Amino acid sequence: xxxxxxxxxxxxxxxxxxxxxxxxxxxxxxxxxxxxxxxxxxxxxxxxxxxxxxxxxxxxxxxxxxxxxxxxxxxxxxxxxxxxxxxxxxxxxxxxxxxxxxxxxxxxxxxxxxxxxxxxxxxxxxxxxxxxxxxxx
Length: 137
Hints:
The chain is α/β, with parallel strands linked by helices. It has one domain (2-136): Cytidine Deaminase, domain 2, CATH 3.40.140. It is 27% helix and 36% strand. It contains three helices and nine strands. The protein has helices spanning 6-18, 57-70, 90-99; strands at 2-4, 25-31, 36-37, 39-43, 72-81, 106-111, 118-125, 128-132, 134-136. It has a six-stranded mixed β-sheet. A three-stranded parallel β-sheet has the order 3-1-9. Strand 7 and strand 8 form a beta hairpin.
């Protein structure tokens, strides 16, 4: 079961809202060997775009090093869609396959299209997009 804490969910939504008009992005992590998200690392969208996101490579390394020091593992990437639904775009799928060719990571999308934000999670491998139920703890 893929789960995130309500605190992490709220931080992701707040980060998404705070980056408008641009897409927000970040990495999330949890205890090794689990699919439990307990930590969120908000990151700068290096693309500074409302259409795409790009994780800053230097910041990515810093987050990985922090996760290693904390003894947790990076589980995936969060990003927002400011004007579209919480579903991977063609660009999201292409980027996921380049970044994570084995489809091991989770991809959380926060949509700000409607008044109330929508958060959904996916696993992406090649052209397969599989939604993963999120349990909020």
